[in-house]
Amino acid sequence: MLQRGIYLGKILGIEIGLDYSWFLIFGLVTWTLSSSYTEFYPHWASQYPVWGNSVFWVVGLLTSLLFFSSVLAHEMGHSIVAIRTGLPVQSITLFLFGGVARIVREPSSPMQEFVIAIAGPIASLILGLLFWLLSITSVPDTPVQALADNLSYINLALAIFNMIPGFPLDGGRVLRAVLWKVFGDIYRATRIASLAGRGVGILFIAGGVTLALWYPEHLINGLWLGLIGWFLHNTAFNSQRQTLQRQILASYRVGDLAHSDLPQIESHITLDELVQEYLLKRGAHSVRVVQNGEFVGLITMNDVKKIPRAIWEMTRVSSAMTALHGMLKVDADESLAALYDRMSVNGVGQVLVVRGSEIIGVVTHGQLLGFLRTHAEMGSK
Ligand SMILES: [Zn+2]
C-alpha cells in the first residue's frame, strides 16, 4: 500500500496514488499556467463572455491536470515495460518532484534495466508529438491550441530532463545499464551512476543559489532548482548506500549468519519468565522452544510484544511463539541478499535455516540489520 497520501485506484493492477506533497505542486503549476494564459491571451475573456475571467483558471486547471496525467503516462511507460519483462510494479505515486513507480525488484540484466529506463522518456516524447500535432492543427490563439502547445513543450521537457545522466534519473539508469554491460558488475555501475547523480544534484543546487542571488526576480525558480538538486543528491546518495549494503549481503551465505546455539526453553514457561530470565538477563534475541525434548518453535521479543503486558504472567510461550511449521525455511547456501529480499517481501521477522532436512539454525531480521550496521562501522574506520 501507499505510505501516505490518497489512493486513486488501480491501472493494470498497479496502485495509483497522490502523495500529500503533490497538492502543493499541483496548486503551484495551476496558478503559474493560469497567470501565463491571463498574460498572453487577454482576448479570451471577451472571446468567451460566458466564462469571463474564469476562462484562464479553467484552461489553467485543465492544462495542469493533463500535465500530471503526462507524468503518470511517463511512469506507466516504465511500468508497462517492467511488467512485460517480468518485474512486478507495486504502485505509482505522484509527489512534489514528479512521479515514482515502485518496482519490486532490481532489474536482472543491463538490457532489462535499459529498456525499462528508456520507456518513460519515449512515452513522454510520443505524448509531446501528439500534443504538437494537436497544436498545429487547431485554430491559433484558442484555449485548445494554447493548451496543446504548452503540453507538447512540457512533455518534451519531461523527456529531456529525465535523460540527464545521473542516477536515479532515467538517463542515470541508462548510464548504469551501459556501465553494467561494460564492467559486468552492477555494483560498480551503480556507484558511478549514483556519483554522477550526486554531481548533477550539486550542480542544480549551485545553479539555484546563483540564480536566486544574482537575479532576485528569479528567486522562486532558483529556490525550486536548488530543492530539486537537493532531492536528487539525497536520492543518489541513498541508492549508493543501498548498493553497498547489497554488495555486502550478496557476498555472504545465510549459513554464515545462522545462529545454532540459541538458548532453549520449555513450551510451558510463561512470557513473564521468558522476558526476565532470557531476553533481559541474558540478552537473547530469540529462544528455541522445546516440548518433550522436541524443537517446536521460536520466540522473539517481537512475538512477546504482540501480547498485552498484563497477561504475560499467565500466557505460556507455546501460545505466543512462531511455530516451526509456520516458519519460512531458507537454504543455508542462499545469499544474504536473496534472504533480505524474501524477508522484506514476505514481511517475516525470522527464518529457519536448513540444509536438506537438517535444521542449521535461525536468522532474524534484527540480526541482518545488526550485521549491516557492524559492516558500516568497520567501513567507516
Ligand atoms: Zn522516468
Would you give an account of this structure?
This protein has 14 helices and eleven strands. By secondary structure, the protein is an alpha/beta fold. The strands form three sheets. It has a four-stranded mixed sheet. A four-stranded mixed sheet has the order 5-6-7-8. A three-stranded mixed sheet has the order 9-10-11. Helix 4 (110-137) runs antiparallel to helix 5 and helix 6 (170-183) runs antiparallel to helix 7 (186-214). The radius of gyration is 27 Å and the shape is elongated. The mean pLDDT is 88. The chain binds zinc ion. The site of zinc ion has 5 residues, from helix 3. Zinc ion binds at residues 74, 78, 120, 162, 170.
Summarize, please.
It contains 14 helices and 11 strands. It is an alpha/beta fold. The two termini are 39 Å apart.
List the helices and strands and how they pair.
Elements lengths: L5 E6 L2 E5 L1 H21 L3 H4 L6 H31 L4 E7 L2 E6 L6 H28 L5 H20 L7 H14 L2 H29 L4 H32 L3 H4 L6 E3 L4 H10 L5 E6 L2 E7 H5 L11 H4 L1 E2 L4 E4 L4 H11 L3 E6 L2 E7 H16 L1
Parallel strand pairs: 2-3, 5-6, 9-10
Antiparallel strand pairs: 1-2, 3-4, 6-7, 7-8, 10-11
Zinc ion binds next to α3.
Oligomer: single chain
Overall domain count: 2
SS content category: alpha/beta
* Sheet having the most strands: 4 strands, mixed
**Small molecules (ligands, ions, cofactors) in the structure:** zinc ion
Shape: elongated
In spatial order, strands of the major sheet run 1-2-3-4
State the helix count: 14
N-C termini distance: 39 Å
Strand portion: 15-25%
How many E-type strands?
11
The Cα radius of gyration reads 27 Å
Unreliable sequence segments: none
SSE pattern: EEHHHEEHHHHHHEHEEHHEEHEEH
Helix content: 55-70%
Mean pLDDT: 88
